[in-house]
Amino acid sequence: MLVDSHCHIDFEEYAGRIPQILDNMARNQVTHALCVCVNLANYPRVMALADGHAQLFASVGVHPDQADDDGLGIKDLIDRAQHPKIVAIGETGLDYFRQSGDMEWQRTRFRTHIRAARECAKPLVIHTRAAAEDTLRIMREECANEAGGVMHCFTESMEFAQAAMALNFHISFSGIVTFKNARAVREVAQAVPLERMLVETDSPYLAPVPHRGKTNEPGWVRHVAEEIARLRGISLEAVAEATTGNFFRLFKSANSDVTL
User: Fold this and answer.
1) Can you tell me whether residue 160 is helix, strand or coil?
2) Which residues contact 123 (CB under 8 A, 6 or more apart)?
3) Which of 47, 182, 201, 219 is 20 to 30 A off residue 36, Cα-Cα?
4) Mean pLDDT value across the chain
5) pLDDT of amino acid 98
6) Is 214 exposed, middle or buried (0-12, 13-18, 19+ CB in 10 A)?
């Protein structure tokens, strides 16, 4: 049994394909998936998927890439997070790779998400790219450890992973771990304790080998888990059991009672 801890199957790429996506999850023994919100425009589609399918959960938040999105205030985030299918706050964080100039608006929005997560007791889904130092600094300043959460699609150093875990965060690996040229990520996947690990697809992006270059989907998180098992010299079942247990312990409001 596996869980895709991060996907975006509300995107246009999946229009009309949701039954097929869910069938492929079942064939690969992927019992649940977290559909992560990236902006206010997509929020209704995210919620429609979560409300319509017992095996799908949702988050509420605005991605740091969304410069033109006014975002949500603390009260707005908290109010929306009361919905029973909302299990997390995010996707939030910092991205200095795609954006340039004065990034204070990103840092302010990140702080807003952390404060909301602490108040409503929901974990955070954090994105960081080319902003490692500021990400950790703000997490510490805003006491993100009180909410906990996950560093999604991890591509940072082991030193960063250790700092994040010390702040009560899990480390989530995507299809990147199957890429032969992603040596640093593969080494971190070997070293992170199983009890702090999640797996994800980040669909529609980063399809794992042997599907690299295609539109990714939650059922393919099995390939991520298989590669982590191979790298660590353990069974797929051990990775699946650990990461699935971690998911439901972290996202406490997620209901695991789904029969495939």
Assistant:
1) helix
2) 87, 88, 89, 117, 147, 148, 149, 150, 250, 251
3) 182
4) 96
5) 84
6) exposed
Q: What is the pLDDT of residue 13?
A: 95
CA dist., res. 14 & res. 242, Å (int): 29
Dihedral angle over CA of 198, 203, 208, 211, nearest 10: 150
111 within domain boundaries:
yes
Tokens 């209704």 correspond to: 44
Range of the domain at 195: 2-250
Residue 186 tokens, joined: 């593969």
Could you tell me if 124 and 114 are in contact, meaning their C-beta atoms sit under 8 angstroms apart?
Answer: yes
Return the CATH number at 9: 3.20.20.140
Q: Over 70: is that where the pLDDT of 259 sits?
A: no
Number of domains making up the chain:
1
Residue 152 backbone phi and psi in degrees, to 5? -85, 155
Amino acid at 92: T
* 78: CB partners within 8 A, 6+ apart: 116, 119, 120
pLDDT at site 15: 96
For the beta carbon of residue 70, count every other beta carbon within 10 angstroms. Answer: 9
Q: Is residue 258 part of a domain?
A: no
pLDDT at 258: 62
Backbone angles phi, psi at 64, to 5 degrees: -65, -15
pTM of the model: 0.97
**Residue 52: both structure tokens together:** 């319509």
The arithmetic mean of pLDDT across residues 231-235, rounded, is: 98
Side chain identity at 95, as an amino acid letter? Answer: D
Share of the chain above pLDDT 90, in %: 93
**90 domain residue, yes or no:** yes
Query: Is the pLDDT score of 100 beyond 80?
Result: no
In a domain, residue 232? The reply is yes
